[in-house]
Fold this sequence. Notes:
Layout: H1 23-29, H2 34-51, H3 60-71, H4 90-109, H5 114-131, H6 135-152, H7 190-206, H8 215-220
Amino acid sequence: xxxxxxxxxxxxRVDADFHADSTAVLDAAEDISIRARMALAIGLYEWVVWxxxxxxxxxEPEQVLQASWCSTVDPRYLKxxxxxxxxxxxxxxxxxxxxxxHLSFGLNNGYAYEGDLYSxxxxxxxxxxxxxxxxxxxxxxxxxxLIRLGQHYPVQTIDPFADLFDYRIGEQLGPLIGRDVLDPAxxxxxxxxRQFLSETxxxxxxxxxxxLATPEDLKDLDFEGEPYLLPHF
Length: 233
């Protein structure tokens, strides 16, 4: 069923053909931490990536996925990037380009400009609902996940003077979150979350993920301390 593309796709129109309403997702996002919003956006992105798994030869979508999880530790870990639009067109590459572009924009900027992350969440939900064979599967996943995030990762009060020059961005986003949190069948487990994030960072460094910011990139972004390590909170 995954190989049957039964949705309308026009690269000139894109979301003009989307019909899903993202209001419930955005309303729920107001009550969760910034880091939880980032994880939710990555989860929605992952639905799009796996929708087209095996239908293309690109390595970038999964590399962006890995680097995006790294960015939940510190948003500066995700390198800023742009893809040439004309090289990503059609009913497979087009949605992938849109997903990567909107996700990265939200993750790169969402800690400082919440509207950018909300925009990414709304778009990614509507995109996933549009390209999946059955939207009901997405909504059945989404419902318990929104409840879980609200219960375990509530919105955090951020002191704007605590890190005035954005040296310690990762400390302002709420508790760390791993991929298992997005699996309704698994109970939240902080130790497992930390293990996942630690391994993801290590693998991204070992494989030289092109979307992971280098130590030189991070220095230019005023990153303090040794990169790619988990904070103690």
